[in-house]
Structures are given as structure tokens and as C-alpha cells.
Amino acid sequence: SIMNSTGDSDQVHQAVLRIPFKDTRHAEIACTSLSVDPEPPRSFVTKTIRADGSLVVVTFTSGQVRKLRVAINSFFDFATLVIGTIDRFDLVPDQ
Amino acid sequence: MVLIAMGFEGSANKLGVGIVRDDGQVLANPRVTFVTPPGEGFQPSETARHHQQHVLDVLADALAEAKLSPKEIDVVCYTKGPGMGAPLVSVALVARTVAQLWRKPILGVNHCIGHIEMGRLITGAVNPTVLYVSGGNTQVIAYSQRRYRIFGETLDIAVGNCLDRFARCIRLSNDPSPGYNIEQLAKQASGDKFVKLPYTVKGMDVSFSGLLSFLEERAPSLIDSGEFSQADLCYSLQETIFAMLTEMTERAMAHCGSQEVLLVGGVACNLRLQQMVGQMADERGAKLYATDHRFCIDNGAMIAQAGIEMFRCGLTTPMSDTGCTQRYRTDEVEILWRD
């Protein structure tokens, strides 16, 4: 178990999201868009994001469960927006 | 070769997507505004949610209005800052995603410079002293040696923020905007009743927070006494703050020997402000330039216009640098497109 800087918990809480996309191209586009912005300061959450084939894998790590929830909620709003953009504005094949 | 830029703007409560051609034609500029109930301002997370809900529709509207397909866009521009964090990011996410989907370069644009470049385009002002006044910003700007230099600014809150918060104090509607409703109400004042408010110009700068506190503390009792109406207070507020802005602008114009003054930003829509600054300009033999609500108020086309200038100089933003920043000074950007 790990003691983090807040001394809050000696448990490291982790959540992993696996988001499927139509193909590798879409997954990499989503991953790129979503990896630019840092987590807010004092969020106590570390986020990693990577494309694994047509899957986007996002890992959230925190010493505090409720901080995890905040980070994941926020991420879902942004991910939903990116997914919606891809669904609606991808080029049709002949473009 | 004709260049076409798309611009995304969402740094405050306005969400706009604009399309501009490099010959100066604005091909599309749809916009939606997040309006809160009377007495309430707009918070970052609810504003971000509003932008997330509307941005894809506004983007579709822009393409439809311009009658363009994505492949005809040459560069995707977005507001990098300054502004509110989550709203900025919400819009940047869409810009990054379509730039990748459509295989186009992306450009992060300074919001203030968007206002300036759109003002110059629409009015034709060549080298004006710029008074940039909005809910988030109050600056007097003049171009010198590849920078938009800040000659004077607010030491605390923006003049538009002062107006917005006074509107909340007297529970005015925020539809279409609090400042617009203050302007209309002020017109109803007779002009005979004037509340003396703290007039605060300090050197080249101005300050509004003391004036706002003074007015917020006294407004309820002034109105309850029956001596002053809401209209009288709106009138007194406008006369005072606009005189301060006019003085700050005149000082900069005198330093620069300027013959042109350009008003930009949401507060620049105000006809009384235009009249006051216009009168000052006349007295100096200078000319006033102003646009209308389409371009004064935050919009996507202004981001596209500044973006086109940057793109023509060969600038693009690497995807890893397409973050957003709440603080972004006007003079941080090198203005390569002017001598």
C-alpha cells in the first residue's frame, strides 16, 4: 500500500475505462484530443490515456475515491463530446 | 489562392463558430448565448455544459450557412485564451477533433487579438488606438513593433463585469445581455437625477471594483427612498464608467498621436459609449470606428479572422500545444502580419 502526499489513505484507488471506437484511426483521434489538457491543479488524480488498437484505455489513479469520481465525471463529459464530434463530422469516404 | 478559416469561440457565455475567407468575406457566424436567470451570473461548469450541448449544432449551422463542406476549410482555429477554463476546453476539444478528422492544421488564437483583427477588418481602421471593453477584459491597446501593447487597463474588474454585477444587484434580466438592458433602462432616465459615484482613473489605468461596491451597498436604499429609480442608477453608472474609459483612451491617443480609435468587445455595442468616445475623438480631430453586435460581441468569425492572419504568416499550432490558458496577455503574441 502507498502513502500519498495528503496522508489521506494508504490505498491507491484506480479506475480503468475502455472505450471502443470503430477503428484505430478514430481511437487515435479521440486519444489525441483528450490527452492535451492536464488534470486541474489540486485534483489529486493522475490520468493516463492511450490508444490500444481501436480501444481507448484511460486509467485514473487517486488516494481519494471521491476525487476519482469527480475526475471520471468530468472526463465523461469531454469524451462524450469527442465521440459525438467523430460520429457527426467524420469525412464520408469519397471526401 | 483563396484561404478559408473556421474559428471556434467559447471563452465566456457565448458559443460561436465562424467561417471567414481571406479576402475579408465572413461566410458564416452563428452564435448561441448561455443566459442565466436574473440575479445570477454564469459559472464555469454550467457554461461548459451549455457549450458542450450546442457546439456541434452551431458547427453544422456554420457549414450550412457558408455552403461549404469540411474539405474546403484550410485551417481550424480556436480560442486558446484568455477566458474560463472548462468552457475553453470544451470548445478546443471539438476543434482538435475536427482538425484531425478533416486532416487540417490547427491554430490557437488569443481572444483579444480576435476582437482587434475583426474590428480592423470590418471597419477598415488602419492603425487605431483600440478600446477593448467586455465582461472579461478592459484594455486600451496600440500597435507598436510587432506587438499589441497594452497602454492602459483595469486594475481589478472589467467594465462589463461591473455592469453585469450591477444588473444582478437590481435583478435585471440577462436576456439578451445584462449590459444591453442597463443601456435601455439608462435611456429612460431624465438625466436630472445623478448619483455621484467614485470616479477612479489611476495614471494610465482604471479601477471599477470600488465603484461597484459603493453602488451595490447604496442601490437598495436609494431606490427604496423613492428619490432615484433603477433608470437613474443605470444612467449614473454609465455616465461615470464611460467617462473613465474615455479619459483612459484619450490619454493613450495623446501619447501615440493617434487619429483613429476603434471600439471592440461586447461593451462596445453600447451607443452611449460610442457617443462619448466619438465626441472625444471629434475634439481631437480623430475618427471613431465601431462595429455592431454581430462582431462586437464574442463570435467565431473573429477567431477565424485572426487565425487567417497567423496562418498566412506560416503559423500553425502543434497538437500537443493546443491546450487552453485562462490568462493570456494581448502583448504575448507576436504580430507577424503587421510591420
UniProtKB/TrEMBL annotation, chain A:
It comes from the Eukaryota. Signal peptide: none annotated. It is found in: Cytoplasm; Nucleus. Keywords: Cytoplasm, Nucleus, tRNA processing. One of its GO terms (cellular component) is cytoplasm. GO terms for biological process: tRNA processing; tRNA threonylcarbamoyladenosine metabolic process. InterPro entries: CTAG/Pcc1. Belongs to the CTAG/PCC1 family. PANTHER family: EKC/KEOPS COMPLEX SUBUNIT PCC1 FAMILY MEMBER, EKC_KEOPS COMPLEX SUBUNIT LAGE3. Component of the EKC/KEOPS complex that is required for the formation of a threonylcarbamoyl group on adenosine at position 37 (t(6)A37) in tRNAs that read codons beginning with adenine. The complex is probably involved in the transfer of the threonylcarbamoyl moiety of threonylcarbamoyl-AMP (TC-AMP) to the N6 group of A37. LAGE3 functions as a dimerization module for the complex. This is L antigen family member 3. It comes from Macrostomum lignano.
From TrEMBL, chain B:
The keyword Translocase does not apply. Binds 1 divalent metal cation per subunit. This is N(6)-L-threonylcarbamoyladenine synthase. InterPro entries: ATPase_NBD, Gcp-like_dom, KAE1/TsaD, Kae1_archaea_euk, Peptidase_M22_CS. It catalyses: L-threonylcarbamoyladenylate + adenosine(37) in tRNA = N(6)-L-threonylcarbamoyladenosine(37) in tRNA + AMP + H(+). Its EC number is 2.3.1.234. One of its GO terms (cellular component) is nucleus.
